[in-house]
Specification:
The complex is a heterodimer of chains A (about 270) and B (about 300). Helix content of chain A is about 35%, strand content about 25%. By secondary structure, chain A is α/β, with parallel strands linked by helices. Chain A has a domain of about 180 residues: Rossmann fold. In chain A, the strands form 2 sheets. Chain A has a 6-stranded mixed β-sheet, sandwiched between helices. Chain A has a 3-stranded antiparallel β-sheet with strand order 2-1-4, with helices on one face. Chain A starts with 19 loop residues before the first strand and ends with a helix. In chain A, about 45% of the residues are buried. The N terminus of chain A is likely disordered. Chain B has about 300 residues and is mainly α. Helices cover about 65% and strands about 0% of the residues of chain B. The N terminus of chain B is likely disordered. In chain B, helix 4 crosses helix 5 and helix 8 packs parallel to helix 13. Chain B has 2 domains: about 30 residues, no CATH class; about 270 residues, no CATH class. The chains are: A alpha/beta (about 270), B mainly alpha (about 300). At the A-B interface, strand 1, strand 2, helix 2, strand 4 and strand 5 of A face helix 1, strand 1, helix 3 and helix 6 of B.
């Protein structure tokens, strides 16, 4: 493992004058997946499984993140790259405190907010109501919600094709839903914002706006993590990039270097 | 990976020390109980808005819409009346059986639905839980608030039924408010217990209907409570007098039904004491139990 992590921890982490916001210390995340009743689909086989106490095959362990360490500082935007299943999203969840590390620890300043494409709101409710609920769920006071709600809908751009804000969210296209979710989550100033592929679903115009918003969030002394398969948007928004492969930190450094290495490897 | 513990080449601190120096906290850490309660209070606007939204959306794809809030309790009462009042009509001992039955059904349903929906309070909101960090106790409380809004509708129906069947309006009617307060606190606690259990034991949802059915029969909803003393061994009847839904139902009957005063399962004072006891024990116990599992919700 040592040779893999060698390039890590160079240029981007030497500046010790800055304030760390996220410290990831040798984190291992192990998923325990309940495969459900896979021991056969009939009641008899389910009973057999219980009687013979062979519960083991229904639970499988997936070692998704294997000993990742890094420190993120105030005002940084960090891209996370790596092939599918390399543990990027899992790492974000661990940073958000939503998955417990099996070993190691994650220390954060304030409460990190995870923004993913599958962060479900209430699909039966209108977009407007989802905005209000989402903001309240982030802990905003009601007066501020009232003030910000029109801005959020405006930013999401869901009203560009008629009055969609008053329609139930289940009628939205996946892109519109993702845009609204991003608009809601980014309305609040987060100490640490974790973005999981959320920008990929929007159209070009929205992508430009949301990249602008990410830069603003970062400038207001927050730290932004961005998981994306679009190397372009990582290059545009992040100055530091972490490359994960099979749950192991392969490279950590300036975006230019890491992205070049990542693209050359393919 | 020999030197991964050293975070900063300049200072030589380990990562844990570095985190401590800048006051960073372990992600997803469970706050102390008082702090947790304080945070939960800060989320009161979220809970009321969420419960109102849930009530609005729950019936949004039915034709009659919010009318079902009144129709559901009415239909329920009608079905039970048909079976226990007309077909089996054997309860001549209860002077106003319709009002007696409806009070029991509505008050019991408040606890029943709270328990049933509480079981899925965590599992049904995984999207929200995995996306946002907030005190998870907000979810079971929301479940109870939704039930409370529906109960208030049932109470209006109940008041009409009680008046229609010839009960007088007395000052005791005012006592329904403190009684519902006690039951609500009890329900919040119970919902939190069920929410934590339901998030771990996913089979619970299949079992709960049977548990609730049994509980219904043990709560003196469908027949006169005097049957307990007549048919059960003495100790069993004494145990059943502690049954929380029975206590709340009898308190409601005490408040609303003038005809039931002589047949209460135990004295009003004792009923109030038991009601208060259950509200405090379940309210605090449920909250502490739920808080202890705070870090586990939404994982796996």
């Amino acid at each position: 493992m040592a040779d893999l992590t060698q390039p890590a921890g160079s240029a981007a982490v030497t500046d010790s004058g800055r304030v760390p916001t996220v410290v990831v210390d040798d984190v291992h995340v192990i998923y325990r997946i309940h495969k459900g009743a896979t021991g056969g689909t009939t009641p008899v086989s389910a009973l057999k499984r219980i009687v013979s106490r062979t519960t083991a095959p229904t639970i499988r362990e997936v070692h998704a993140v294997k000993g990742v360490s890094f420190t993120a500082y105030e005002g940084e935007a960090i891209g996370l790259i790596g092939s599918n299943g390399s543990g990027k999203s899992t790492l974000l969840r661990a940073i958000a405190g939503l998955l417990p590390p099996a070993r190691g620890a994650v220390y954060t300043q304030g409460q990190p907010s995870l923004l993913g494409v599958n962060a479900a709101l209430l699909n039966d409710l209108s977009g407007e109501r989802n905005v209000v609920l989402g903001c309240l769920a982030m802990g905003m006071p009601p007066e501020e919600v009232k003030r910000l709600a029109p801005e959020i809908i405006e930013f999401s751009g869901i009203n560009e094709r008629g009055d969609f804000a008053s329609l139930p969210m289940r009628t939205y296209s996946s892109g519109m839903g993702a845009r609204l979710r991003f608009a809601i989550s980014s309305a609040k100033k987060h100490d640490v914002l974790l973005i999981d592929e959320a920008l990929a679903t929007g159209d070009r115009k929205f992508r430009a706006r949301s990249e602008q918003r990410v830069r603003e969030l970062r400038d207001s002394a927050g730290t932004v993590f961005l998981v994306s398969h679009s190397i372009g948007s990582i290059r545009d928004t992040c100055e530091r990039t972490i490359w994960l492969e099979s749950g192991v930190l392969k490279m950590d450094g300036p975006t230019q270097e890491v992205c070049d290495a990542y693209e050359n490897q393919k | 990976m020999a030197n991964t513990a050293v975070a900063d080449p300049d200072s030589g601190l380990t990562r844990a020390q570095l985190a401590q120096r800048y006051g960073l906290r372990v992600a997803g850490e469970r706050p102390p109980l008082a702090e947790y309660a304080r945070r939960l209070w800060a989320y009161r606007h979220f809970m009321t808005a969420y419960s109102r939204a849930k009530v609005a959306s729950s019936l949004s794809n039915t034709q009659l819409g919010q009318l079902w809030q009144v129709l559901t309790p009415l239909t329920n009462a009608a079905v039970y009346y048909l079976i226990f009042g007309v077909i089996l009509s054997q309860h001549r001992s209860v002077s106003n059986f319709i009002a007696y039955l409806c009070t029991g059904v509505f008050i019991f349903m408040f606890t029943q639905t709270a328990v049933q929906n509480g079981t899925s309070a965590i599992t049904g909101n995984l999207g929200l839980i995995r996306a946002l960090q907030f005190p998870r106790a907000a979810l079971p409380i929301t479940v109870t608030l939704v039930q409370l809004q529906q109960l208030l509708m049932s109470m209006i129906v109940l008041a009409a039924i009680v008046l229609f069947t010839g009960e007088p309006i007395t000052f005791r009617w005012l006592l329904i408010a403190p009684m519902l307060l006690l039951q609500t606190i009890f329900n919040v606690g119970l919902t939190m217990v069920m929410a934590r259990l339901g998030s771990k034991v996913t089979d619970l949802k299949q079992v709960m209907p049977f548990v609730m059915r049994t509980w219904l029969y043990a709560s003196g909803v469908l027949y006169p409570v005097s049957l307990f003393r007549e048919h059960l061994p003495n100790w069993a009847a004494s145990v059943l007098e502690w049954n929380p839904p029975l206590v709340f139902i009898e308190l409601a009957r005490y408040s609303l039904l003038d005809s039931h005063q002589a047949n209460l399962v135990s004295s009003p004072l004792r009923l109030w004491a038991l009601g208060l006891f259950w509200a405090v024990v379940m309210g605090i116990g449920g909250f502490v139990y739920f808080w202890r599992g705070e870090e586990e919700y939404g994982r796996g």
